[in-house]
Design brief:
single chain, alpha+beta, Immunoglobulin-like, Neutral Protease, domain 2, nine-stranded mixed beta sheet, five-stranded mixed beta sheet, 25 strands, binds tryptophan, binds zinc ion, metal-binding, protease, zinc, Peptidase_M4/M1_CTD_sf
Length: 489
């Protein structure tokens, strides 16, 4: 992140004093130049006052060196309101995004991530703001500097044909993907920008309200819960959804199309919502039942379910993959087996409730979700995790998986098999080393301590050592950070 120079740091303090003392923490009333100069002991109109008035531009990236332009610096989003109207026939989206954020510096200018579209208008705290486009950065210059720590609201009006990221060499096609009857919306790692302007990195989670308008007969699905019934007027239906728990941008969805639905509750009373494209009619009950059953099981193993509902969606877009969209995992063009459902639902705890701060720690998502598949197999009386581990471990020492250290996911090969399988093997090696009681206590504690928050690998290693009372750096070094087959642990 940008380092403040000594002089600017002094100015920032002065502004803080001025802002709190004179006007409270409100962006719209934050024009505190004269007050600041007095608080700072310097005369109005001198260089200091001018400088604070100008503030600093927020960074174009949130500070993940592997994805330098993902997310943005200088503010923190608390809430998105996404108003989206989509016409599947014309593949046309028009949207109004309202971002409620808090400045983390004096902000003279800031970015949002947005890919494609024509931006019609941007306002900050209700006043028109200047804006420009540069690659995937929408650069916004408010009419006045936003003081550090103050809340502000940005509204962006935009429209155009959404363009998902297509056939990226290591990430495939993702983002807002138009389908014959709507859209399949799966945005990992940075495809949220293909459908709304925001802070597109998991290190800035926020709450979401969705208002989605589609032609009558089309169903619009999003994260969380429906608010009221859909409203149809003039051949269009508006669906309102709300995700009231913090959510990473890549987990947000507005998948639309023709869907058959089943709603109810799991055995312990968690809301369960399943939706399938009519082509997968025959899979609706199985998806509903398995999702319910697996959510119940993970609640016992990992701790209480973190969100307001569980379930899943099968669309007919032939992605061939699944994504753990918060509360509604999506399966693209296949009928998921219970192993895949177990994987995506485990992500609700590992990846969704607990989010990685930087992409290099991706094994904290994928290694855990893959290990969950092994636990599910063991639970069902199929192959034990131990047996699956041995099988995978038996792979020849020259195999690719041993050349890729999973504890440091590579930006040009993020979703490498090693991050998944060797990540899962790491957890099994740990389980062997510390024993079942400590291992399962660790999984639950890890979740409880970071619920709805952010995590990094060193934090996991530290907790594993704390709970087991063992020194584990050798184990983690061998399994996560060494590009060769581990032999002892
Ligand atoms: N996280 C997904 C899983 O393992 C895989 C995935 C990576 C993905 N990038 C994606 C899915 C983009 C959909 C879109 O469950
Ligand atoms: Zn996964």
């Amino acid at each position: 992140m940008i380092m403040a120079s000594g002089r600017l740091a002094v100015v920032a303090t002065a502004v803080l004093i001025g802002t709190i003392g004179a006007t409270g923490c409100s962006a719209s009333r934050g024009d505190s130049g004269a007050t600041t100069a007095v608080a700072d002991g310097s005369a109005p109109g001198d260089e200091v006052a001018v400088e604070q008035h100008q503030g600093r531009a927020g960074a174009a990236g949130i500070g993940d060196p592997d994805f330098p332009n993902d997310g943005n610096g200088g503010y923190d989003v608390g809430h998105y309101r996404l108003k989206i109207e989509y016409d599947p026939e014309r593949k046309h989206l028009s949207g109004v995004t309202t971002v409620e954020a808090k400045a983390t510096q004096n902000l003279s200018r800031f970015d949002l991530d947005l890919s494609g579209f024509t931006v019609g208008k941007v306002t900050v705290n209700g006043a028109a703001a200047r804006f420009s486009r540069s690659g995937d950065e929408l650069v916004v210059t408010p009419s006045r500097t936003i003081p550090d720590r103050s809340a502000f609201t940005v509204e962006v009006t935009y429209a155009g044909q959404p363009k998902p990221v297509r056939n990226s060499p290591n990430l495939g096609t993702y983002g807002f993907i138009p389908t014959s009857d709507g859209a399949f919306v799966t945005s990992e790692p940075n495809g949220a920008r293909t459908w709304f302007p925001g802070n597109d990195h998991p290190a800035d989670k926020a709450r979401y309200d969705f208002e989605i308008t589609v032609p009558e007969g089309v169903t619009a699905l999003a994260n969380g819960e429906q608010v009221g019934s859909p409203v149809t007027q003039g051949g269009k239906t508006t669906y309102t959804w709300r995700e009231s728990h913090p959510m990473a941008s890549y987990l947000a969805t507005v998948t639309m199309g023709r869907f058959e639905l089943r709603e109810g509750k799991t055995a312990s009373g968690i809301k369960n919502f399943a939706a399938v494209d009519p082509r997968y009619s025959g899979s609706l009950n199985e998806l509903y039942n398995q999702s319910g059953r697996i959510t119940e099981y993970w609640s016992k193993v990992f701790g209480p379910y973190p969100f307001s509902s569980t379930g899943g969606v099968i669309d007919d877009f032939p992605a061939g993959y699944a994504l753990e969209n918060q509360t509604k995992p999506m399966y693209g063009g296949f009928n998921p087996g219970d192993d895949v459902i177990a994987h995506e639902l485990a992500h609700q705890w590992f990846g969704d409730s607990l989010s990685i701060r930087r992409w290099k720690d991706l094994w904290l998502n994928e290694g855990f979700a893959t290990y969950a598949e092994w636990l599910w197999s063991e639970h069902k009386g199929n192959a034990s995790a131990e047996r699956i581990f041995r099988n995978r471990y038996a792979v020849d020492s020259g195999a690719a998986i041993w050349k890729y250290a999973p504890g440091r996911a590579k930006p040009d090969d993020l979703f490498n098999d090693s991050v998944y399988t060797r990540g899962a093997m790491t957890l099994h090696a740990l389980r062997q080393r510390i024993g079942d009681p400590a291992f399962f206590k660790l999984l639950k504690t890890w979740n409880a301590e970071h619920r709805y928050g952010y995590v990094t690998t060193p934090e996991f290693v530290a907790l594993a050592e704390r709970i087991s009372g063992k020194q584990l750096d050798g184990l983690f070094d061998a399994w996560l950070f060494t590009a060769k087959k581990p032999t002892t642990w």
